[in-house]
Design a protein that fits this description.
The protein is α/β, with parallel strands linked by helices and 320 residues long. It is 31% helix and 25% strand. A nine-stranded mixed beta sheet has the order 6-1-11-12-13-14-15-16-17, sandwiched between helices. Strands 5-2-9-10 form a four-stranded mixed beta sheet. Strands 3-4 form a two-stranded antiparallel ribbon. The protein is globular.
Length: 320
């Protein structure tokens, strides 16, 4: 098994679940929760307290897979932070690298979820997960990971550069799932890719980094920067290549989505969890898809994460 550092955010997710008052209403090309009126009082069917955030979600998948998972992120000294630590401790994630910010609250999201359709709107106060400049790359010297898994740091290219360079210096591999703010800094992002071993993006994100419309052309152009690239395309599946193999894949299972929160984190961390266990590139893609399907089938961004020993059925996947 591997030592994997998950660098990213930690949130407490508060779900407000209802079956009728949050029904989406279409207005042109947009949907809104049209039955909630300003000034009204709405009875909610269910409230559920969960934890999430890209760093937390991925660390839980790694720990469930049997890896030595380490979470590196910011929280506050408050009940939400205590909830994050409690869940990570229960899952067997190393929490000794957490930074406690005295003047910040732990990031918190309120998720408005329609139980009929699975549609949701998320209101987020990022708090301690708003900034990451306090992170010390020297923590990697202490942790000595085999892999550094990083989700968005909200456009903090300096911190990403420091950590990616340090990982490169100590011989750790890097898997990166950039966010909107990283993608807005295309030149800086491309410069970072020389330190990245696995890049995970969706189709629209790939098109912001390199020119192209078709999945194949986006893949081959990104492969000029990163050896292993995974490009997802929602219900159409995706494409992935590692320099030796290229696969076009569909979805693992057409299952009703209960809560789509954490689907991307589940896919990316599921892929690395399986790959770092010595599994093949192809089987890691299958597990990634299965892990994402399992997560969206339950309430919460990580509750459905698989353990790696579940029997998996075949899925559409073709070697190109």
């Amino acid at each position: 098994m591997a030592r994997i550092v998950s660098l990213g955010s930690a949130l407490q997710d508060i779900y407000l679940v209802d079956h009728d008052d949050l029904t989406p209403t279409n207005i042109g090309n947009e949907s809104i929760f049209g039955k909630v009126l300003v000034g009204s009082k709405v009875d909610i069917d269910k409230i559920s307290y969960e934890v999430g955030g890209g760093g937390v979600n991925s660390a839980i998948t790694f720990a469930r897979h049997g890896h030595e998972a380490i979470f590196l992120g910011n929280i506050g000294r408050d009940p939400a932070g205590a909830a994050v630590v409690r869940v990570l401790d229960r899952e067997g994630v190393d929490t000794s690298y957490i930074n406690y910010l005295e003047r910040k609250t732990t990031g918190t999201s309120v998720v408005l979820l329609d139980s009929k359709s699975g549609e949701r709107t998320i209101l987020t106060c990022r708090g301690a997960s708003e900034q990451f400049g306090n992170f010390s790359e020297n923590d990697l010297d202490l942790a000595q990971p085999d892999w550094l898994y990083t989700t968005t740091l909200r456009g903090d290219m300096d911190t990403l550069t420091r950590f990616f360079k340090k990982a490169h210096d100590i011989g750790a591999k890097v898997m990166f799932n950039p966010g909107v703010r990283e993608l807005a800094n295309t030149k800086e992002l491309i410069n970072l890719l020389k330190y990245v071993d696995v890049l995970n993006v969706n189709k629209s994100e790939a098109a912001k980094i390199v020119p192209g419309v078709m999945l194949t052309e986006l893949l081959y152009r990104l492969n000029n920067y990163v050896e292993t690239v995974i490009i997802t395309d929602g219900p159409m599946g995706g494409i992935a290549g590692n320099g030796a193999e290229v696969y076009r894949f569909g979805i693992y299972e057409d299952r009703k989505v209960k809560d789509a929160t954490g689907a991307g984190d589940a896919f990316g961390s599921g892929f690395l969890a399986h790959l770092a266990s010595g599994k093949s590139f192809k089987s890691s893609l299958i597990f990634a898809s299965a892990n994402s399907t399992a997560v969206v089938s339950k309430l919460g961004a990580n509750k459905g994460a698989l353990f790696g020993d579940e029997p998996l059925h075949p899925m559409p996947i073709q070697k190109l």
